[in-house]
Amino acid sequence: MKLAGILCSVLPVLFVAVAVLAQNPQVRVTVYNNNLALVHETRQVDLPKPAGVFSFRDVAAQIDPTSVHFKSVSNAAAVRVLEQNFEYDLVSAEKILQRYLEQNVKLMTKQGNPVEGKLLTAGGNVVVQAPDNSIRILNNAEIVSTELPKLPEGLITRPTLVWQIQNNGAANQMVEVSYLTGGMSWHAEYVGVLDANDQNMDLTAWVSIDNNSGATYKDAKLLLIAGDVHRAQPPVGIMRKTMQMESMTAVPDFEEKEFFEYHLYSLTRPSTLKDHQQKQIELFPAAKTATTKEYTYDGMRNPKKVNVTITFKNKKEAGLGIALPAGKVRLYKPEGDAQVLVGEDAIDHTPRDEEVRLNVGDAFDIVGERTQLSFRQAGDRASEEKVKITLRNHKDAAITVVVVEHLGGDWTIRESTLQHKKKDARTAEWRVPVAARGEASVEYTVFRTW
Is the pTM of this model over 0.85? Predict the structure, then answer.
């Protein structure tokens, strides 16, 4: 059955596909990292008195009805919600026809022939019983329109909270309503541009907000919570896959502050969050910070490859010193008039004054090799091993490689050609300088007991 034909003849307003909030409400949306948002609305409404039913429309389709909080700003003591129902049986062609089973309908075929009678079934085929009791079976593709006298009761066009109200005050009141909804989340995206010597980086941050809650929030005050908020039983929402992309080109203005055990980012201007939309807003403008490039060889991770990391201090003295929410960092480097991606990594929520370490990738021109030179069992619960790490540098510049070895049990390095550092109970490190176009190695003997 063609949806446009049915809905045109029933009610034009049914073409509204997205729930849009009531005219001129005050809306505040607090978005969390984990598919959760808190919606707070203030509306001027007309409530029934002394009692009656009131429909609060345009709520999110993924609302958690058990989280709804209602308050009359005008007269809190005079208004009570005695009962609440969340109505989400939205209009569709199939639902309308199901409500008209055993009732008279009028169909129009492609040939322009009307078909009238009692509707017996409505699905892949439509079965109609004519007034003379003859049966007409129509394929869905044959029907171009369906005429029905009215919208069946119980179907709505937008998700709605229906309240049984007791009102001992005025009819016209200002009310506050807040609720939790699924289908919304946000995450940070960082872009870092390294200089020619990899010693400095221009870092910018953007936030991406995904709204699949089933509602549009027009000119909302937007707040973002960064942190891991525990939830006992989060509601299960249906994530929609269709998204639009909207990039904010205006200069943003987020204010950041500590809030409980989290960090709160408040956008100082209104922003509209459309349903089925992914929006990007700049979190902070470019900040220059010093960086360090480090080469690491971990023969247990990869016997040939040398890993490349970029580290920087999230300190005010280094050009940053702000709370960095979790997100993906993409690193670029200028090449002529363009910028080339050199690697990306994800960071966790990072407080001020902490170090950030980014895994960029593996070096092309540096090769490592790990060789076990000897091994002997020194009793039932002891062993001795001699290892050689060789590094070959095919670059035109000298480098230093951090060699990492994972040593189990209770270990002691008895001999080593270079001084080592005991990083922790299971890890030893060496800093090995390698000349340009050169080769270097480190040999050590470790004694283990367990």
Answer: no
